[in-house]
User: Fold this.
Amino acid sequence: MGRLATAALAGTAVEFYDFFVYGTAAALVLGPLFFPTFSPVAGTLAAFGTFAIGFLSRPIGSALFGHIGDRYGRRPVMFASLMLTGAATVAVGCVPSYATLGVAAPVLLLVLRFLQGLGLGGEWGGAVLLTAEHAPERRRALWASFPQMGPPVGFLLANGVMLGLSAWLSDAQFREWGWRVPFWAAGLLAAAGLLLRRSLHETPQFKELAETGNRSNAPLMEVARGHWRLVLLTAGALAIGYAVFYTVSTWALAYGTERLGISRTVMLACIMAAVAAKAVATPFLAMLGDRYGRRPLCLVGCAATALWMFPMVALLHTARPPLIFLGLTVALLAFITMFSVVAAYLAELFEPRVRCTGAAVGYNLAGVLGGALTPIVATAVSGGEGAPWGVAAYLTGIALLSLGCFALLPETLPARVRESESKPETAAAA
Assistant:
């Protein structure tokens, strides 16, 4: 399990490195380079628009790769998705700017961002199910949380490279060619991820489905017919996690550097420290999910997020790095209280024959609801003077929506499920 979980974590870290490095570039340089005829705010909005395309393509990728995962196995998904995302990311680093290529430059950017999202939409389902379906029942949330540590590791890697380059290079050098280096590095990281994954075996549950001939012929249609309510509830429940993470990692970076006048290095350092704290907390919170259940942690995390959004914005607006770090860290800890257990939770909510499709589509639809629009909406509502309370109100509303969706989902902790199933039999016997 240790070797398998490490390979899954490494792969998701590489995939999310590719995805996050684009978000950081969108916040820092893509607006002036690819939308130079726009005003600064409009250019940032346009850059975040290309950022959002990746989220819109993720559900399509989850349906495409989910079909492969439910028909042909979880293992092929992990290789194909990693190659697609890595190739698209390297290509982004090679796209000439608007000054060289004209309107074709932002169009190419959109196409490559779409392909990035397509690959990432398949990655999560394959990596999570490979660990969740191999894991022992009593430690399923813990082992399945390893792929969930991939996003913060990928984020730290992406922003660490950006931070180093921005500190080492002048602003002119960074805007001219420095921002491209992290995209080119994605090729080496993808190759390393593929090497780590080459010895992984297919999951026991899929082998059983293949041997018994119980695989779904059309998993997406089966999910749409029989599990649509579950998909919508999981998408709504997880939306706040995406909204909080991309508020912290993308919008806060743009707001801090452009509106508050904080240096790029200081803002990146605050955000990276908060993300590192989130990564460290993930396995410990997952162990609580194995002990007390998945649903209680999700409800607590959602409620904490709803209560913290206004204090977070107030602390950010002070422009004081220690207070910014505090505000962002508490927000991410509330978020990971939910997301530390969702890998096991979604795997247990869907039956094995459609699990890869159902879990991945629900997870990536949440990205559209919570991640795609959040930087755009947050930038739009934070244009006036004073603290951006509209951002806090927007995030609080999404948190309450997610809280309602979690309240409608059942508990899936195997011990609790067996206990609830045995109660009617005990009552009948009495």
Observations:
- The chain is about 85% helix and 0% strand.
- Residues 261 and 319 are 8 Å apart (CA to CA).
- Residues 2-196+219-410 form a domain with the Growth Hormone; Chain: A; fold (CATH 1.20.1250.20).
